[in-house]
Amino acid sequence: MPESDAPRTIESVENALGVLDELEARETVGVSELAEALDRSKGTVHTHLATLAKHGYVVNDDGRYRLSLRYLGLAEAAKSHVGSYDAVTRELDDLAATHGERAQFAVEEGGKAVYVYRATGSDAVNPSADIGRYEHLHSIGLGKAILSVLPEARVDAIVAEHGLPERTAETVTSREALAEELDRVRERGYAVDDEERVHGIRCVAMPLVTGESEPVGAMSVSGPASRMTDDRIQSEILPDLRQAVNVVEVNAELG
Q: What is the full DSSP assignment across 191-252?
């Protein structure tokens, strides 16, 4: 989007959101630390913190600030926009327990994939839950699964807005290569992240589609490349992932 066509924004709101982003990355933080991280004056940062605290978005613990538990309520409200969320979490929990790996669910928002739920099995690597984190769609299995069921014009718009940045040497970085990859995903019904976002990690993902052919999101199982072999994906993981997706889609239609 040309700069002249970009929507106007409010600088004070931008600054407040910067404060919240920094608080999200830390357990607690003082005014001076936060001012330095944001390259803002202590007075400006303190004013933002005081305003956010007044409205219940942050908590002041003896001069150390943290996010408030109000975000739990906001998160629950956001989940209500995800159809069959309970079915999704049940199926992902079962996938993680059965295969010992990470099982994840993401939706598309603003042209990126946002992680909504993650279940970790007994052998899962990096089990931290990056819920709410946004990723470029083209560089993860979940994202490619979602792109495969979006209209071509929407895919073009997403690429035009966000580009195709390289995460590893395996990442698809051209529109032509992405089109070929999405054709493969449509043909076989699933996407594979072959160390395209993180070296050493492979992922297999399938889109969730409602009866109106609208993508709800995507579900995946991921793990170390040494364990996520083609044979294991085909014989063990894909049958269970297909069943999980089918259960969620049926629940969505019945709901």
A: EEEESSSSTTEEEEEEEEE-TTS-EEEEEEEEEETTTS-HHHIIIIIHHHHHHHHHHHHHHH
Q: Does the pLDDT value for residue 127 go beyond 90?
A: no
What is the spatial distance between Cα 48 and Cα 22, in angstroms, rounded to a whole number? 13
Phi, psi of 224 (to 5 degrees): -60, 140
Domains of the chain: 3-68 (1.10.10.10), 76-254 (3.30.450.40)
Find the Cα–Cα–Cα–Cα dihedral 21, 25, 29, 31, rounded to 10°: -30
Query: Backbone phi, then psi, for 175, in 5-degree steps?
Result: -65, -35
> Is a pLDDT exceeding 70 seen at residue 139?
yes
Rounded to the nearest integer, the mean pLDDT of the chain is 86
Q: What share of the chain is helix, strand, coil (3-state, %, to 5)?
A: 50, 20, 30
- Local structure of 129: helix, strand or coil: coil
What pLDDT digit, counting tens, does each position of 182-228 carry? 999 999 999 999 999 999 999 999 999 876 666 778 999 999 999 99
Closest alpha carbon to 49 in 37, 67, 70: 67
Give the tens place of pLDDT for each residue, 161-181: 999 999 999 999 999 999 999
* Phi, psi dihedrals of residue 227, rounded to the nearest 5°: -100, -30
pLDDT at 7 over 90: no
Give the SS3 label for residue 29: strand
225/195 Cα distance (integer angstroms): 8
